[in-house]
Amino acid sequence: MTMTITLLQRLPLLVSGCALALMLMASGTPASAQVAVMVNGEPITNYDIEQRSKLNFMSTHKQPTRQEVIDELIDQKVKIKEAKQFGVDPSVSDIDASFADMSSRMRITPDQLAKSLESQGVRPDTLKARIRADMVWTSLVRGRFKESLQVGEREVAAAAREDKPAEDKPAEAKPGEATNEQGNKETSSESFEYKMQPIVLIVPRGSAPAAVELRQKEAETLRSRVQSCDEANSLFKAMQNAAIREPVTKTSADLPAALRDLLDKTPIGHLTPPETTKQGVEMVALCSRKPTTIDTPQKKAIRDKMFSDKFEAKSKAYLQQVRKAAMIEYR
Asked: I need a surface site. Which of 27, 78, 250, 253 has the fewest CB within 10 A?
């Protein structure tokens, strides 16, 4: 009886597999397109394996084994199938947007990324398929195991104490260095809330280097005059080809280390050194810098690491469970 039920359950997969094999034989399909593995009735072809091998080599500069690539493609199939059961199914536009974000981080356009892939024998859809699997799986794991993935404040505090050397003590500030309200030097182990206003002296694109240099000198002159954010607003709002944006508030954990260091060295009410960007010559007016109990950069790094470790462990266990339940047939 059990054997009969098992055969009945497998019958649709066997029929679809046979039909696919007959179609390939009848059409004279090349070896590269022949089916290597069936996963829950869906094929993984030799061509799929070849494409993913090339993509992985482009990404890691290491040649994966055939079985490693097959395992990755099997994981991709079962992840997408499992996600669909819970209503996680991104649209084509979602995938294209993620593809565009990836190209933006590489400082190229989506078309340039596509051409770069094609020049090395990889179809853009191969990368988009991997993006899709990663996207749905991340959403699924985060959604299903939200509670167990949370990192408590006590966990972070305990890890921070272990991570901090016992000999760490508040350091005395040197002349000219930023200090907190207690007169001690501000360190990366403390967290601050910065209120600031970005300023830009506009330089049209394509301007000669001399024009950029002139604006830099102008920025330095203006920087020496400004003593408060009120003065900065009055000055830059009245200037032509200049703009001062609305105040923004960020904490230490929100900012990259280089910008934190720059702001900590800037006296309250003054401007940071001018920097040339695509928009022109930019500075930041520092309106206030206050201690805050929000995560320090150290605590944020610890929290992110602890969440990542929990996510990886849960993801691995869940994937093993899903794979075990999958129908996987090698050809």
From this structure: 27
